[in-house]
Amino acid sequence: MRIRTLSIIVFLGICLIVAALVRLLITRDVDDGSITFSLPEDRFFIYRFVPLIAAFIVGSGLGVSGMGLQVLLRNPLASPWILGLSSGAGLGVMTMMFVEHTYNVGFLGGQSIGAVIGAIVTLSLVYLLSRRRGGIDPITMVLVGVVISVLCGAGIMILQHAVPMGLRGAFTTWLMGSLPEIEAWWKLTVLGVITLLGILLIAWWGPTLDAACLSDDEATSVGVDLPNIRRKLFVTSSVLAAIGVILAGPIAFVGLIAPHGARLFIHGSHRVLTLTTAIVGALLLVCADDIRQLIDVGSGRLPIGIVTSVFGGIVFLVLLLRNRGRI
Amino acid sequence: MRLHISDVGVRFNKITALRGVHASADGGKIIAVLGPNASGKTTLLRLIAGLLSPTYGKIELDGIRVDRMKPYDRASKVSWVPRVAEVAGAFTIRRVVELGRYALGPSTVRVDEALARVDLLDRSESLWHEASAGMRQRAAFARALAQRTPGGLIVLDEPSSALDLQHLQSLGDLLRRCASEGDIVIAALHDISFAMEIADEAVVLKEGQVVLAGQTRAVLTPSSLGGVFGVDLAWAVDDAGKRHLVMP
Amino acid sequence: MRNFIIVSLLFVFGACHPNSGQVEQGDVRIISISPGITNTIIDAGYEQFLVGRSPFCFHADQEIPVVGDLRNIDYERLLRLSPTHVFVQKTASGIDAHLLALATQGNFELRTWPLNRVSDIQVIYGDVTEMFGDLRLSFQIDTSENQLVPSPILVITQGVQGNAGLSFGKETYIDDVLQMMGVENVVHQSGWVSLSLEDIGRLQPKAIIVVSDSLINEGSLSSIRSVGYRVIPFVHEHVLVPSSYIVDVAKKLQEVIIEP
Prior knowledge:
By secondary structure, chain A is mostly helical. Chain A has 13 helices and four strands. Chain A has one domain: ABC transporter involved in vitamin B12 uptake, BtuC. In chain A, 72% of the residues lie in helices and 3% in strands. In chain A, a hairpin with a 6-residue loop joins strand 1 and strand 2 (35-37). In chain A, helix 12 crosses helix 13. Chain B has nine helices and twelve strands. Chain B has helices at residues 41-48, 71-74, 93-98, 108-117, 133-147, 165-180, 192-198, 216-219, 222-229; strands at residues 2-12, 15-26, 30-34, 56-61, 64-65, 78-81, 153-157, 184-188, 201-206, 209-215, 234-237, 244-247. Chain B is of the alpha/beta class. Chain B is globular and about 50 Å long. In chain C, helix 2 crosses helix 5 (118-132). In chain C, the strands form four sheets. A four-stranded parallel β-sheet of chain C has the order 2-1-5-6, with helices on both faces. Chain C has two domains: 27-132, 3-Layer(aba) Sandwich (Rossmann fold); 153-257, Nitrogenase molybdenum iron protein domain (Rossmann fold, 3-Layer(aba) Sandwich). The chains are: A mainly alpha, B alpha/beta, C alpha/beta. The interface between A and C is large, with 43 and 46 residues.
């Protein structure tokens, strides 16, 4: 790895550590809203540490998932949501809420179960419907993902009419995305380890991803087994995105922006790009969480999905205008 | 190395792109594939490169079906130069050429040598999307050069379409050099003059069938080509009788 | 032949026109596009006058046709129901302009009310009983200052796993009930407020009441319990929609929050 590249990665890592420290230190007075920077009391520390860990896991996972899908679909605007994952998981969550309400039963971890089932069913459908001649067809995959997204959205709207206001409100909050402030340690550990493995796998496939950026014929001629790498990339990217949805709901833009942010610094090597994207994704989400601690529009903190959408959208526009033709 | 094409045909849905193609070639030869648009040239080249499986028949390289080889194994035997090279993402020219070494292991020496041969060594850090069509075409050929193993097969689909005269001459020299090292070189060409200049043998396709095949000078004549293309061709030869200029 | 077909089609469509019956003088036909107002009408004893509702008016007879909600009104359906009165909740974005226009044209009487506070509910209840009954009535929320009721209190909806829901701040109907009980609301901001678990910890409520109109998710409860204060789940079908059923809500709420 070149010195310049290593310096950039170290710099981004330092930024991430600084952003993480800021998150741990921002203390906002509940009554007058004033901000101070200090370590919280012991019993409150966990309410800052858990969302920070979640931001690392979700941000890095979504970022690398987005990068993988942009390579798979040969589309710089691809993101985890283009496969209908967000809508599918949302339909799963909404269905679980409907079942719990209708049959008056409660499932511990019901939301997570609903999100997992919804994500698996959606992604399986997308995979099966976009297969052509034994392999995944990128264009078909995008179209199928959009259609399934719309269908799941319709399902969500139907179910929303059938549940009481409290559940509708809870679901609307879930839709906006939120980093958990408290979570079982075993769940964070398992999801964190899977995310790390997924990122390392995609990094390991880096040279193959580089070659897969050529046209199908050229990639095959230099030795890439395209159906195989597409299958592996689809599964791994989907798992990373699904973990993000399970932990934090559908958080917009991170999967789209993080790879492009990393590409500002890294060219030509998906191995290095993967690791950089993971850091940038985590950095984006931690910064968004920092920002939302500082903003109170009178009704408390904004949901993190709103912060990532607003700032992510602006950042993306700037990237687009500065790098026309390069994306 | 020996390439053998036995009674190969390709059908895409109800359209027959190619039918009844027989041919064989040994190492050390340059073979030009010519024909009107949509005559099946690219389809034939993709079959030879193992990028497409025939609907019937088979293409074998030293007795092994080329379309059934694993891409990783085939890469050391067959190099492919497309008509239009495409790269999604921000890659430098050097990086694109390095991708030719994907299955064979990195080699800065081979990459530098390939870049130098196509006159791109001092432009190798340019970004792909900022390169001209000619530069991209040369880079695609450099990639094949970096990838090739002497005595293998190089398949080129209209490699000269964007090249200026200087680089066209370089291309001819490079192809002859590859052939002299034992490669089978198969190139689809629109430029009949260039084909007559570099090719040992020629295959002419029309409507998916081979209509002419054999020694270049014997096959490519004004009357035979005029019949295939349906035009009157103007034919000029230099005093030494070596260089031909063919135009409609 | 073509003219015959057109005339036949016109005849068929004309015959399909619903509600071609006459509305007799004195008939009251109410459409309510607000669940809170619908519930108040039902509580006041005038459900028989309801001919149209929003899809979220779950407490009404579900056979009553739906005419849309505040954002999306099916005007044709509304008009076909020939309402004499249309009741709508006033929101920050104002009143639907076309609905206003239809009312101005004399199609029906349009009444709008804000619906955030107990006083708002009292006004609606009084207006409805005055319009359709003999007297203007009001309801009474029975509360008494009780030493066994903890104070201050946080009232919060169930949130998603790992996070708190929305809390009831000042100038909400729940806050009004708390004041009547002599209980302090820990939230000083107005309206519905989003608090983090750390915020809740710092506010140090004596009790946290997690309210829902349906089953409360165990995941939500465990997140709130992690803060370390007494957590009281409270399920009441009318707790999340302000209506005159607040009387029963307040009564049941007092029963559950009295300290053991």
